[in-house]
Amino acid sequence: MTVALWCILIAICLPYLCTGVAKFSNGKFGLKQNHDPRAFLDSLEGVARRAHSAQLNSFEVTPAFAAAVIVAHLAGNAELVTINVLSVLFITSRLLYIICYLADWAILRSLVWAIGMGLIVSFFVVSV
Predict the structure, then answer these.
(1) Domains of the chain and any CATH numbers
(2) What's the maximum distance between 2 C-alpha atoms anywhere in the chain?
(3) CB-count exposure of residue 99 (10 Å: 0-12, 13-18, 19+)
(4) Which has the higher per-residue pLDDT, 48 or 111?
(5) Where exactly are the transmembrane stretches of this chain (predicted)?
(6) Is the entire prediction scored with pTM above 0.85?
């Protein structure tokens, strides 16, 4: 397996890191809240709420990243090292995005999000 394909697995797992922060950062998640975790997550505030939002965004962007990596592999026109580097950069951008979200750095978060989306587009550009 290539580094890029492993990065897809990492991207799939990243939302669950955010889920853990959202559920356990305020110390209020327990068996009672697990009966309706979505309602619990909707009731959060502060860093826990931002972690939940980062989780949702991570779930939203992962299919696009996975598709971009797969298309780049299938097209066969891009160097493997280029695909791998773009994948690692994307994962790095997602980690920075999560950090910015948790820290409530809204403008920087939006900039990092745009970079991540640009990286997704770049998979298609290098595959032409």
Answers:
(1) 3-126 (1.20.120.550)
(2) 52
(3) middle
(4) 111
(5) 81-103, 110-127
(6) yes
Q: What is the dihedral of CA 73, 74, 79, 85, to 10 degrees?
A: -20
All residues at 6 or more sequence positions from 47 whose CB lies less than 8 Å from its CB, including other chains: 21, 25, 102, 104
Q: Are 106 and 48 in contact (CB under 8 A)?
A: no
**From CA 46, how far away is CA 88, in angstroms rounded?**
29
pLDDT band at 31 (very low <50, low <70, confident <90, very high): very low
Residue 84 near residue 3 (C-beta atoms within 8 A): yes
- What pLDDT score does 44 carry? 80
